Amino acid sequence: MADCSLDLPGSSSPPSHLSLLRSWDHRRVPPCPALQGTPLSATLSLVMSQCCRKIKDTVQKLASDHKDIHSSVSRVGKAIDRNFDSEICGVVSDAVWDAREQQQQILQMAIVEHLYQQGMLSVAEELCQESTLNVDLDFKQPFLELNRILEALHEQDLGPALEWAVSHRQRLLELNSSLEFKLHRLHFIRLLAGGPAKQLEALSYARHFQPFARLHQREIQVMMGSLVYLRLGLEKSPYCHLLDSSHWAEICETFTRDACSLLGLSVESPLSVSFASGCVALPVLMNIKAVIEQRQCTGVWNHKDELPIEIELGMKCWYHSVFACPILRQQTSDSNPPIKLICGHVISRDALNKLINGGKLKCPYCPMEQNPADGKRIIF
Amino acid sequence: MAVQESAAQLSMTLKVQEYPTLKVPYETLNKRFRAAQKNIDRETSHVTMVVAELEKTLSGCPAVDSVVSLLDGVVEKLSVLKRKAVESIQAEDESAKLCKRRIEHLKEHSSDQPAAASVWKRKRMDRMMVEHLLRCGYYNTAVKLARQSGIEDLVNIEMFLTAKEVEESLERRETATCLAWCHDNKSRLRKMKTCKKALQPSRREPAGRGAPGHGHAGLPARHAHLPVQAPESGVRLHRLPWFFLLLTLCILSDLLDPARWRMLIQQFRYDNYRLHQLGNNSVFTLTLQAGLSAIKTPQCYKEDGSSKSPDCPVCSRSLNKLAQPLPMAHCANSRLVCKISGDVMNENNPPMMLPNGYVYGYNSLLSIRQDDKVVCPRTKEVFHFSQAEKVYIM
């Protein structure tokens, strides 16, 4: 006779369904031949009917409990639809880059350059292979070396980095970089972490600090002071912050920054700056597009050469001078250059022409009268 | 970081960019939930049926062996129910956990520590790049980048790999995988608005060529003989529920030229995006376009290249070409940057004009002053320091 032990589920969440299913035990015992043909006893019959009822109830409960989850699942979907925009409108028509096959190639090239700068060399190689792009070796070379040093730093091997720092010592000093000192410091701290056994080695290594004594006096004092706690263990001393693993992350960053300055590169690749500025610009542009459509004044963004609204990216993104005429509130261009009046105020040429009254010009910001021809074109 | 993004700005950007990140795993969860419910309902009904039979037998005066055999049946059905339910619920659980992981990751954007915030931003760029690379078809690169950046479960790799299999089979002119995909997603495909348009009969294929019973069960036979449109009459194929087109293609596959297969692949791609509620362009492309526009100025495109700045992204080689067809940034307020030092010229560093009309910052002029003379870096003319006049910018 088969033996079923049933456990009714306590709660209605899926994991309890699993536990319910796991507790079902369906061992089978083959029927004894002697019992065949004999009628079932009344008690057994009763037990069996009870079992049947239990089975039916349990499976029905399983199905209905699972169905109850449906409302939660659909609520998730509705929350996503409510809180996120399902469509992004482009700044220009969608196909502005698709239409030119070359543009796609250029974009892949930009991505490859970005990957090299970020140090993801294997990914860059793979992309070159898949998109059949060719990158010149002399572009790659400095990145290959930097990457080698960075990988060593990630494995806490300071050797290559120190070599590099020593060979570029002069230029690093011009940059006011403390890279070499920091590398020596990390090595010293690592020796300290080795415990009292490394004490002598640490002390003799400390001689490397001598050239930096003037600039980094305080830090050298701290490190020398920590030697006191060497026997007790640095972890429990006031100097435990020296053992912080964030120093390693910091040294990688310092190295990257200084190396990029030496190479004349910005730390962030042009692609990441553009992408970051896009992240700022995109919601602003979508907002204004929605407002334009709502107020039905699509003529405002007809001027496809310029965005309809200014995007604030912060002062670090001011790479070029932009002069906006204070009167006409427009950018100046080659056909409409900025003109400096005699009094020193600057307006655009179109504004100047508009202000001419009877051959004379009065500056809008000070009461000085002057000849229009005296205005001098300036170049920022 | 060069671009300043406040927490409020980050939230706004999240709202605009992250719909695909959450919607795709949610749709998978929904699909698995419905499949689980269907399985459970079906097996439950089987169990109920067998138990009812057992109860009926018990109500009479049964013999032991008949009861035993019925019980065996019940046990078998119960074990099938258990197995299927466990599988389905585990699949659901996995989907739900994936959704949860992604939501947790997105929540980290508002972390207080600046280091964590910059790591999140870097991951965001990597995520968008992976999705862009997947759309372009560079699958190996995308998978490698995802693995290296640690964002494997934050990007929709599986969806694109499934699509890749279908596309590759279509390129080999095999329709089996694609039809299987249609069948798998038929309920959602039906919900999408695919309207049928009457097509002109093709001149190449004789009308009524398709035989209704070509062995593709599940597709209604009355649509069997849809003729394929002649290529000269333009592409209106996108209006057709293209899986019916597929049926015709199966029949006529050796008569069709590669162009139609390419169109079909393209159509499949767009419909796959629509099915998952994605747009036709990657979020990365749209964001990049917006960003390049916001930085682009006329100085980046001067013909003589004299006003290019080494830091400006749009002045860099590749991005310069990319940004050409895009609109320029709008500036309502002047912002002046000294050409020598790159510093801002304002009341702390007033702009000074040399007699040749070129303007530099006062501090920079001080730094290049030698013996009371300055040399204009752009024209190499030499002037007296006192000849520099202050310029007033309103």
From TrEMBL, chain A:
Residues 325-366 form the RING-Gid-type domain. Keywords: Cytoplasm, Metal-binding, Zinc, Zinc-finger. Residues 142-199 form the CTLH domain. It is found in: Cytoplasm. One of its GO terms (molecular function) is ubiquitin protein ligase activity. Its EC number is 2.3.2.27. GO terms for cellular component: cytoplasm. Its main location: cytoplasm. One of its GO terms (biological process) is proteasome-mediated ubiquitin-dependent protein catabolic process. SMART domains: CRA, CTLH, LisH. The keyword Cytoplasm applies. Signal peptide: none annotated. Pfam families: CTLH (PF10607), zf-RING_UBOX (PF13445). It catalyses: S-ubiquitinyl-[E2 ubiquitin-conjugating enzyme]-L-cysteine + [acceptor protein]-L-lysine = [E2 ubiquitin-conjugating enzyme]-L-cysteine + N(6)-ubiquitinyl-[acceptor protein]-L-lysine. A zinc finger (RING-Gid-type) spans 325-366. It comes from the Eukaryota. InterPro entries: CRA_dom, CTLH/CRA, CTLH_C, Fyv10_fam, LisH, RMD5B_dRING, ZF_RING_GID, Znf-RING_euk. Identified in the CTLH complex that contains GID4, RANBP9 and/or RANBP10, MKLN1, MAEA, RMND5A (or alternatively its paralog RMND5B), GID8, ARMC8, WDR26 and YPEL5. Within this complex, MAEA, RMND5A (or alternatively its paralog RMND5B), GID8, WDR26, and RANBP9 and/or RANBP10 form the catalytic core, while GID4, MKLN1, ARMC8 and YPEL5 have ancillary roles. Core component of the CTLH E3 ubiquitin-protein ligase complex that selectively accepts ubiquitin from UBE2H and mediates ubiquitination and subsequent proteasomal degradation of the transcription factor HBP1. MAEA and RMND5A are both required for catalytic activity of the CTLH E3 ubiquitin-protein ligase complex. Catalytic activity of the complex is required for normal cell proliferation. The CTLH E3 ubiquitin-protein ligase complex is not required for the degradation of enzymes involved in gluconeogenesis, such as FBP1. This is RING-type E3 ubiquitin transferase.
